[in-house]
């Protein structure tokens, strides 16, 4: 089985590609290695994937629709795993056109390639986000809930990706599944995420910025609890018709201040905290209802933050020391 993975040098893309390679799958990975965060981290992930004989890398930008189509069609994959996107809520406030290019034009580029593959494509799986739910009082967040009030442009683009995918699935018979990820963390993670920013500040002797005075909750999801269900989903056709959307989250929200205390214990440090108001685009809480995922794929996240965050902290110290 050949899987074409966009965003292969990204956090989730790297981990899933590695798991698939270890299972004997052939991977063609695409990434543009942009500088949204340090490209050295992306290149380090990529170097590990390139150690496998079954991996081939393609450098390309998603918005270059002709190149993307040609590369995907020539690879003849039976599966497409589309993870590449411009991430980040706050960055979308100052760089909106980056999101239009990567998340809208880029998503359409991959959909057109999926369309060109026709019946040879057995499953198109793509990344959405818990951000699509916006600020809502209803918890936990269920896939059937209305997702019409995104709090950021990033969230709006990910919801648009779901709608585009649904339309292509209906029009052209593309078997498609969208995955709404909830605050993924772990080794080889993203430097723009709070847990990484906090660890970096604490180890560098700087204060951490705590927004909304710490009155927030996040449904943290350890990377292994993303990889396992994602591999199960990729292995088959969509479980519910031509197009379905699933939450993938820990289903156990953690208060921001509790997360900070867990990180402090893991690092053996106490953070100096600067308490700040809520930032535009943020939401106060996320909470995944994963009933649908459990019913269709038999998976429920098992890693507690108390176990997963120390694994990140251990890896991050080694990353800073240059020993990984």
Share of helix among residues? Answer: 40-55%
The CATH homology group name: NAD(P)-binding Rossmann-like Domain
CATH class: Alpha Beta
Give the distance, in angstroms, between the N- and C-terminal Cα atoms: 30 Å
Proportion of strand residues: 15-25%
Number of helices: 11
How many strands, which pairing sense, and closed or not: the largest β-sheet?
Answer: 7 strands, parallel
Low-confidence parts: none
Number of separate strands:
13
Placed side by side, the strands forming the largest sheet appear as 3-2-1-4-5-6-11
**What Rg, in angstroms, do the CA atoms define?**
19 Å
Number of spatially distinct domains: 1
Mean pLDDT, as a whole number? 95
Shape: globular
| CATH-level-2 architecture | 3-Layer(aba) Sandwich
Structural category is: alpha/beta
- What is the third-level CATH name, the topology? Rossmann fold
- Series of secondary-structure elements, N-terminal to C-terminal: EHEHEHEHHEHEEHEEEHEEHEHH
